[in-house]
Design brief:
The protein has about 450 residues and is an alpha/beta fold. The protein folds into two domains: about 110 residues, Arc Repressor Mutant, subunit A (Orthogonal Bundle), CATH 1.10.10; about 300 residues, Transcription Regulator spoIIAA, CATH 3.30.750. The protein is about 40% helix and about 20% strand. The strands form five sheets. Strands 1, 4, 5, 6, 7, 8, 9, 10, 11 and 14 form a ten-stranded mixed beta sheet that branches. Strand 10 and strand 11 form a beta hairpin. The longest helix has 18 residues. It starts with 8 loop residues before the first helix and ends in an 18-residue tail after the last helix. Keywords: 4Fe-4S, Cytoplasm, Iron, Iron-sulfur, Metal-binding, Oxidoreductase, Porphyrin biosynthesis, S-adenosyl-L-methionine. Its EC number is 1.3.98.3. Pathway: Porphyrin-containing compound metabolism; protoporphyrin-IX biosynthesis; protoporphyrinogen-IX from coproporphyrinogen-III (AdoMet route): step 1/1.
Amino acid sequence: MAASELFNESLIRRYDISGPRYTSYPTAVEFNESFTNEDYLQQVEHSNQRGNPLSLYLHIPFCDTVCFYCACNKIITKNRLHAQPYLESLHKEIAMQAELFDSQRQVRQLHWGGGTPTFISTDQMIALMSVTRQHFNLADDDNGEFSIEIDPREADPERIKLLRQLGFNRLSLGIQDFNPEVQKAVNRIQSEQQTLSVMQAARTEGFKSISVDLIYGLPKQSVKSFSETLEKIIAASPDRLSVFNYAHMPANFKPQRQIKSEELPSASEKLAILYQTIDQLTEAGYVYIGMDHFAKPDNELAIAQRQGQLHRNFQGYATHADCDLIGLGMTSIGSVANAYMQNEKTLESYQQRLANNELPIFRGYKLSHDDIIRRQIITRLICDFSLDIQAIEEQLGYDFFSYFVDVIPALRQFAKDQLLEFDTQSIRILPAGRLLIRNICLVFDRYSQQHQQSRFSKAI
């Protein structure tokens, strides 16, 4: 069935509400400053007792120019000298964090995000990876997933070759849209040749997975223009695609105030773009992983989903659900044992805490048993599009229908709207429900995210 056949107007109106993307549960909105470094150390102790593999996220916040749509934590500067003091602080944090974790625990995943990680120089990249390897036990190339976000305007074949030599074996390229008018409207001028040459260089150097990021709902986009971008992307044959729904929230993100609201596609046009995207990519052989991700059938993301081992974290869909995540750098978020934690959000406070030999954690959240139950349900629904009710009852020790008696009416309505099917054994998400999975997850969220709609993007 084509994506456009899944909805009618009344269904769209009913479910076009704001809600989290559930890269965590509870979401970062619930993080609080009562979470201390002592709390973190307790979670690290629990983590070491479990002995699971580790995942590292390193945040490089600098960008040369601002993209108007961006909602990331970044520092806009053309002065490359600003990076060095930050990197020195980051080196120190890496050493301090490594001291806390059992040195035998292997790092299975590593990700450099931003900002623009390729903002920093070749020598700075070499030094940062060297410090990381010095302090953490990184897996070899066959077992580790080491990825980096690439701005093709900040990369060339020589830099791609260096990244492969440093140990990166996966990369993600920011594209958003190839249309020149759209690029101008969002202040991201990027030629097709720049992008495609980076992709070709990555293949030449033996990168195991190449992902591209696109955004639909940007100013001056149409079904036709975005379809043309998709045609070019499909021809380039990336292993994965992230196709994000642009959330226009200028009150929250100052750069978005540069975007003219009247140039944004209408709600109906935006939905039509989504329909076209799903149909075009699935016809080209990509698997619709969920929400905003697509992958080739032989990509580890699609394989993990088929095996019931897909995970969701602060970077989106991921493999290796068993890894504890250590966030490094300003604003970074970690997930260790049964808690989340986030670093200081400003450059000054981040660097000052480390200068004082303190971990730069400024807020976090310790999960209750109720949170763990709800997180497991939301994670499995958003990753598997199904829930084995009996298995999760046995795993977490509760009776599903008694525990969630207040949710049953919503499940019945979802079933009536043909978003899902459910019985005493399982919940099974239907095709229309896959596009509205955030709405379904929302009914299991006890923090009433519906009342905080200004903080979240629209589901459709």
